[in-house]
Amino acid sequence: MRGTHPLPLRFIPLLALLAALLLPVGVPLAPPAAAAKGAADPVRIMPLGDSITGSPGCWRASLWNRLRSTGYTNIDFVGTLGPQGCGQPYDGDNEGHGGELVTNVADQNLLPGRLAATLPDIVVMHFGTNDVWSSLAPDRILAAYTRLVEQMRASNPDMRILVAQLIPMNPSSCTGCAQRVVEFNARVPEWAGATGTSRSPVTVVDQWSGFDTAVDTYDGVHPNASGDEKIAGRWYPALTALLEAGPGDPGDPGDPGDPGEPSGCTASFRAVSVWLGGYQGEVTVTNTSDSSVPGWAATVVPVDGARLTQVWNGTLGTAADGTATVANASWNGTLAPGASASFGFIAGTPATAGAPSATVSCTARAASS
Q1: Which of residues 245, 269, 294 is at a domain's end?
Q2: Ranges for the CBM2 domain (predicted)?
Q3: 48-61 core/surface letters (b: 16 or more CB in 10 A; e: else)
């Protein structure tokens, strides 16, 4: 039958050209979805470590759900490894490789490829347990930390990094491990102070204080359910502080002192006990506002070259000049009007230091609207 032949193929490019010419001038074609990147992109967070982080590392599930339930929804946990259960829905991507030594990761240059595949904005690192177990010297482990931080910044100059003081370790097959963790953790704040920058801060998170291997692990090393909750509780305030500050903004510590901007809380210091080379101190934070606050952070500036080395009932971050910032723990952040919370700490001092003294201040986190 006439009139039923298909168009010759040579007509099709011509029709496409005519259609393109009919488009209004100045109307751009939409870019591919993969090429679009805007301000609404989620913050990419890499949990980095060994089996404590990834096998199965269920503190990540607890942390993820705690963040989501408190309004931090624009986040994405990233890593080349996937979830391993944990009995609750969560974003299980991570970089926790069971059995890895942080020194091997640095020596074998393993991290750059993992960073390139995931492009994190924040790294949450609990790494070095296997190195301590292997009796490697703190200097060597911290050199590996430095190498990894350099690689993180090569991937992202604005990388923000949370580094844990390791949870305690007391396996029956390693009688010296418990003390080696203590000795290593004591070195971490000074390393972080020398390594952090205003553009790429390194914040120390005390995962050691208040963690009991007899109660919070199933084998003296790996956390059980209660241990997972404690680890998540220590990461939470430090991580939310970074999420609230945003990239390139370490938190603007000068803001609370600006005229006309009350901090919402006061802080007081007392020395509990003193010994040669150190002392135990306590800081009490009081909500002075007329409404409940969901969290707080205290600044501690010790005199005579003292430095905070351990904190309990709070999460420690230390700047290069020795100034310490302690954020509330998960259980003592919410304060009603007039209510108080306290945290304790150990400070190391030079032999020439005088009586313990510190300037303390605090700021309350605003309630979510």
Answers
A1: 245
A2: 258-365
A3: bbbbbbbbbbbbbb
**How are beta strands 340-348 and 160-165 bridged, if at all?**
unpaired
CATH number (domain holding residue 167): 3.40.50.1110
In the predicted model, is pLDDT for residue 133 greater than 60? yes
Q: What pLDDT sits at residue 353? A: 79
Which range is least confidently modeled, 131-145, 153-167, 307-321, 334-348? 307-321
Give the integer Cα–Cα distance in Å for 339 and 310: 25
In a domain, 17, yes or no: no
- Which structural domain, as residue segments, surrounds residue 334? 255-364
Judging by DSSP bridges, how do beta strands 324-328 and 314-318 pair with one another?
antiparallel
pLDDT, average across residues 353-364: 84
Q: Which of 220, 211, 299 is nearest to 252 (CA)?
A: 299
Q: Which CATH number do you get for residue 321? A: 2.60.40.290
**Between the CA of residue 270 and those of 95, 121, 281, 328, what are the distances in Å?**
41, 38, 6, 18
pLDDT in tens, 33-63: 333 334 479 999 999 999 999 999 999 999 9
DSSP state of 48: E
pLDDT in tens, 134-155: 999 999 999 999 999 999 999 9
Give pLDDT, residue 24: 39
Domain boundary residue, one of 216, 245, 274: 245
Query: What pLDDT score was predicted for residue 317?
Result: 80
Q: Single out the residue of 337, 336, 356, 350 nearest to residue 273, CA to CA.
A: 356
DSSP 8-state symbol, 93: -
